[in-house]
Amino acid sequence: MKNLIRFISSKKLMLIVAIIVLSVIYIGITHEDAPETNASKASEKYFTCITIEQGDTLWDIAEEYKTEEYASTQDYIDEILSINNLNTANIVSGTNLLIPYYEVKNYQ
After folding, report:
1. pLDDT tens for residues 32-44?
2. Would you list the domain boundaries of the chain?
3. Is the domain defined by 41-106 classed in CATH 3.40.50.1360?
4. How far is it, in rounded angstroms, from Cα 26 to Cα 31?
5. What is the spatial distance between Cα 74 and Cα 24, in angstroms, rounded to a whole number?
């Protein structure tokens, strides 16, 4: 009877060890290192105010001010609309808009 208990206990222990080993191997294989960041550089978000001129479109403004932090030009335009409480992309000459942008700062 004791041998049976030892046999079952050793099987459980081997199963636990096998699960741990497989988990470590899986994590080691599938783990992708995060890109290293340079701690001396960081992007900071800023805002500027611009006055809309005749012929300006939000798309043109986005092409000028959008930085790589935005996934798309449309995402940037959506943020401009949100910041300025606009429901439509139609803008009028002489209107002031708050425009976001990012700038890389060196902290050395």
Report:
1. 654 555 555 678 8
2. 1-32, 41-106
3. no
4. 8
5. 42
